[in-house]
Amino acid sequence: MRDAYHEELDSIGDGLVEMARLVGSAIGRATTAILDSDLKLAEAVIEADQKVDDLQHELEARAITLLARQQPVATDLRIVVTSLRMSADLERSGDLAQHVAKLARLRYPERAVPHDLHATILEMGQLAQRLMAKAAEVIITKDVDLALQLEQDDDAMDLLHRALFQHLMDDRWKHGIETAVDVTLLGRYYERYADHAVAVAKRVVYLVTGEHPDDLQSDIQPATQVDGA
């Protein structure tokens, strides 16, 4: 019985990794769809989000069954409860990728992103995908140091988000109100997506240590800092 119990716990972890990989792929494909005005790809991203939703429902059902039948305590209870929260973060990440794809579909055959912001949105999409890939690695490895790095990595997304607003507020903005709204929404989608990747990593820290990340004193340096600087 205990072997089956721990196998079920492991399967929940595997499901979380699969969700992270799916939503990581989704944000990358949605970014391509929005930048290239690719309707077929946008539709594929929108449709694929159902698989993420289905996975979340399966994980919730497994977790609730474990809570009811096994009545886990201590570390095992923390694993189940934290997994439920992570699955919610990942599901929301999938929704945000879907929002990007829906905006691409809404503006088709026009491009929602003006040419002068193409590079910024591309960088945001690539960064979002990297953050989620790192979150998936954290789920697998339970590496607390790597998990804590994500919040520092997220600073780059915040800088890109600010850069978008600087563009919008520039007197030379010439793309109209509708495009300004689209760009504002896109910036928010990517920024929130990154926040959810960070939240997943923070939950792994709590799962491993029993402490909230903000309470830990980490000596990790930002990835961009050069030794001896």
Describe the structure.
This protein has 229 residues and is mainly alpha-helical. It contains six helices and no strands. The protein has helices at residues 2-36, 39-70, 74-107, 118-141, 144-169, 176-209. Helix 1 packs antiparallel against helix 2 (39-70) and helix 5 (144-169) packs antiparallel against helix 6 (176-209). The protein is elongated, with a radius of gyration of 19 Å. Residues 217-229 have low confidence and may be disordered.
Radius of gyration computed on alpha carbons: 19 Å
Strand content: under 5%
Spell out the helices and strands N to C.
HHHHHH
CA-to-CA gap between the ends? Answer: 54 Å
Uncertain parts: 217-229
Helix-residue proportion: over 70%
Structural class, by secondary structure, is: mainly alpha
Mean pLDDT over the residues: 90
Silhouette? elongated
Continuous helix count:
6
What's the main sheet like? none
What's the total count of β strands? 0
